[in-house]
Prior knowledge:
The chain is mainly alpha-helical. It has one domain. It is built from one helix and four strands; from the N terminus they run H-E-E-E-E. It has one helix at residues 5-94; strands spanning 110-112, 118-120, 126-127, 132-133. The strands form two sheets. It has a two-stranded antiparallel sheet. The protein has a two-stranded antiparallel ribbon with strand order 3-4. The longest helix has 90 residues, at 5-94.
Amino acid sequence: MEITIDTLISILGLFLGGGAGAFFTWRWQRKKAKAEAEKEEQGYYQQMMKDIAQDRDYYKQERDEYRKTIKSYDERIDDLERKVARNGRIVESLRPFICTDLKCKLRHRAVISDNGEIEEAKKPKINKESSEIEPINNTEL
């Protein structure tokens, strides 16, 4: 069995061209596919991070709007509580002047200031002839 240079080159050409070339091509293709898969995974990851950031910003904005709404409600409640307290003080200051007799001739109107002081507005005019009180115009108060 004689091996000539031609057969040796043919065998070497077959090995390098077919077997070894296929092996190196397969290995290169595997590395390429792995790099593409990693790149695609990284793209998914980046998109997921952008979505999370957008959601976080949206929820922060919603939270801030709710806080503003709650703050405005708290301010309105505080204002109403102040008004209720003021009205309570006014009622307490008027308690001595409450008269259950609606035909009382001494009844008169009073103006109550914001700090609860009572000022007499207009005293009703008593008609001495009929002994009745003339009505006071309610639009003046």
